[in-house]
Design goal:
The protein has a domain of 87 residues: Nucleotidyltransferase, domain 5, CATH 3.30.420.270. The chain is built from three helices and seven strands. The strands form two sheets. The protein has a five-stranded mixed sheet with strand order 4-3-2-5-6, covered by helices on one side. The termini are far apart.
């Protein structure tokens, strides 16, 4: 028969039942596939690479200001033009005065495109701005 209770002719059966293991692994895989895209904040851009990055103390989560390769400006996941971005950024800065701003610019952008967004942040009374880069592993 399919199941033996250990007391008969065959003795104790020491087979591993793999089905529950596979079920658990598949559930974990699905969870990671669903959660991973939600971990990234801001808009998806290809960051420039750098050998040295600022490894200062991490405080709270910064405001993510993104500029995509088609030169569209995003504050977190919402798209803005130049004037509405300044207004939204000023409102965020007014409510969270000490919050840092992280600027993520695509590698295909020119310096002028990134400077334009920096000027918008300056007009919105931002105290400082950090540039997002990808660390090059040595």
């Amino acid at each position: 028969m399919g199941m033996s209770a250990g007391g008969g002719k065959g003795g104790v059966k020491a087979d591993i039942n793999v089905t529950p293991l596979v079920d658990v692994c598949l559930v974990l895989l699905i969870i990671f596939m669903v959660v991973t895209p939600m971990l990234q904040r801001g808009k998806d851009v290809t960051l420039p690479k750098s050998h040295e990055i600022d490894k200062g103390p991490k405080t709270d989560e910064p405001l993510i200001l993104s500029v995509t390769k088609d030169k569209k400006m995003w504050l977190d996941k919402k798209e803005y033009n130049e004037t509405t971005l300044q207004e939204a950024l000023a409102a965020e800065i007014a409510t969270n005065a000490g919050k840092k701003i992280l600027l993520k610019g695509d590698t295909s952008l020119e310096v002028g495109d990134v400077r334009k967004v920096m000027r918008v942040a300056q007009k919105a009374k931002a105290k400082g701005l950090a540039l997002g880069v990808e660390e090059v592993k040595k």
